[in-house]
Each structure stands twice: as structure tokens, then as C-alpha cells.
Amino acid sequence: MNEEKLFPYFQPIVGIASGRIIGYEALARQVGIDGKVISAGELFTSPHIADEQLIEWDRIVRRQALQKFSTSDCNGYLTLNISAQWIDYVADVNSLPTLLMLDEFNIDRSRIIIEITESKGDLDKLVDVVDVYRKHGLKVAIDDFGAGFSQLERVMAIQPDIIKLDMRLFKQATKGGIASDIVHLLTRLAKRTGCRIVCEGVETAEEFFFGLSCGAQYMQGYLFAPAEAEFKHSSHYQTHISELRKTFLDNTLTKEQHKIQYIAKIKILCEQLKQALASDFNLNHLSAHPFEESGVLRFYLCNNDGEQVSSNFNFADGKWFEDPAQIGFNWAWRPYFYQLLALESENDHYRLVTSERYRDFNTDVLCKTLSLRLDEKRILLVDIAAAWL
């Protein structure tokens, strides 16, 4: 293959808060047999081409990208993809080709992000190379986060500045289900480690909104633009992003208002339940209240040590069913229990504490648990279907 047929295109990465283009990812392109520009990804993943040849082509494209970046009006970042597997071929970590190119084109190293791709490669050597990049002022990103355990191991080892979510997992997560739970978990993990989140492959407004709900700071994808030959002005998508943010706010505000209204209704039901439980209670009488239509699944009582002192009273099909199987279980280790006690220790005795969402082991229903003080010796816990919130 003629190496001159490989060249870089640049896909914009937008900042959600500013609405501006904050940088570009350099991507290898080639001319197809029909004369159209196509991705060179298939070429670089071919098992029939030696790594040494692929590395040579990659460096040619990288050099072109840096040369064009150095003469452009772009004042943001440039992201360069480097395969972790190819790092194994580096002879001297203190003489990395990318650093030499940056010197050649006099590029500010703080504007370069090295994006680690592929899950293979020697982790110890990768850590050494990343350390060198960081010492020279470059930032480091991990691509396809969530694609496998190796990525989690890599995050722990190199502590990246930026994490790009795995595109396939992200798209699956926008449809809901466990994939959505996993993406939210991964983004929470990333934020706790101080990483910035990038969602790539964003093609629709719905995917953009899902990225916002995950807390992503940056996005890239066909919703804005494919990779192109030229750089755009940083404000090019500002109006578009402003409109998207406004739609997200309007939609989310409506959902939050419904949630507040629902919580108020649940609080009234919990208060009615609390009054009924203050003395001997009649389950049939409780069935007259709209528990089921409000998503209430069950309730039970614990003592101040967290030990369950009552049966589970499960509500279904307009009736209550008593299940004594968990009497004696202890829930003191769960946040919704000890947080309630902590509030009371600070003289806040009227709070209703809500757990995070979890999937009930027995029913497979996504739930939340509400806890509130019943009397001096007992705490009332109510499980509700989280789909209502």
C-alpha cells in the first residue's frame, strides 16, 4: 500500500457547559476504491499486516495530524490514538516518537491528549510510558471504558485524566436496562477518580440527553459532525448545543416535578401507615389505601439496632401478604438505616431517608427503600418500585 494514501481527519469534541469545540480527535482515513474518503480502521485492525508496518503507517498519519494542527487556528486540544499493544515495541521510553514530533512542530504539549486504545499490551510498560507523557505535560485518556475488566485494571494503574465510554455499551445503555445501570456506575467511578467523561458515537438527541444524565462533560459524534479534513471555529455548534441543553432541562424539569409530586404522595401514605402501625393494625383496612397504585411493594419494622422485628408485609393484587422469613435479619449496615439514626442524633427527627436504587433479589424489581421513625423503639421501612421515581 502507498503510505501517501493515508491521511488524518479530525472529529470535533464539544464541551457541554460552554457549548464550544474544546478539541479534536485525529482519525486515520484513506481513499476507497470508489474514490470516497473512508475510515482506515479496517486496515489498522487487519491480522494480515505486521504490527511494525501498522506502527509505521500510524506514525505517518500522526505526524501529518500534528503538522496540520500546528498551523491551524484551533486553540483547543488534539487527541491522538495510540495502541497499548504497539507500546510494547518502544525501545526507549525516554525517546517517544510523539514527543519528538511535538518538538519538531513546536506544539504546546499541554494541548495534546494521548488516547490509549486496545485492551492488550504490557501494563507495566504502559504505566512507564504514561509517566513519561505526563512528565512532559501531556494528558492521558482511556478509550472504550467499560469494554472489559482490563480497562478497570488500566484505570487503577495509570489514573487517566479522561475516560471515553465504550461506544457499544453507551448505545445499549440509552435503551435502559442493566446496561444503563452499568454506564451510570462507571461514570460515578470515573468522577470519583477525578476523570472527565467523554461520550463518543453520539448520533441522536436522545443519546445526547442520556450522556447529560450520566454527567458527561464532553461529547463527540455524528450529532455534531463526522471526522472532517478541516478545523471549525470553536463556536460552530454553540447554538445547537444550547438548544439541546434547553430541551434536556425542560424534559428533566417535568420529570422532577412528577417525582416531587409522587414523593409527596408517598409521604402521606407512609404517614398513614405509621399511624396505623402505632397500635394493632388491620391489614385489610390498610388495603383500602392506594398503596399498590403508588408503587408500594412492602413494609417491615426494625429495632434501633437494625434487627428486623416484624414480618415483611408484601402488597400485591390489592391484598397484603405476610412473610416472616426475614425476621431477625439485621439491616444496620445499610445507608438508609444508619443515615436516619445520624440525622436523629443531630435533632432531625422528622426526615424520611431514601436509599439508592437497587434490584430486589426475590422479585427482580428495581426498588428504593424509605426509612422513617415509627416510635422510640422501632423504625419503619417501606420498599417502593423505583420506576415511579
In short:
The protein is α/β, with parallel strands linked by helices and 389 residues long. Helices cover 38% and strands 24% of the residues. It is elongated.
Describe the structure.
- The radius of gyration is 27 Å and the shape is elongated.
- The chain folds into two domains: 223 residues, TIM Barrel; 134 residues, PAS domain (Beta-Lactamase, 2-Layer Sandwich).
- The strands form two sheets. The chain has an eight-stranded mixed barrel, surrounded by five helices.
- The protein is 38% helix and 24% strand.
- It is an alpha/beta fold.
List keywords for this structure.
Beta-Lactamase; 12 helices; 2 domains; alpha/beta; 38% helix; TIM Barrel; 7-stranded antiparallel sheet; 8-stranded mixed β-barrel; 389 residues
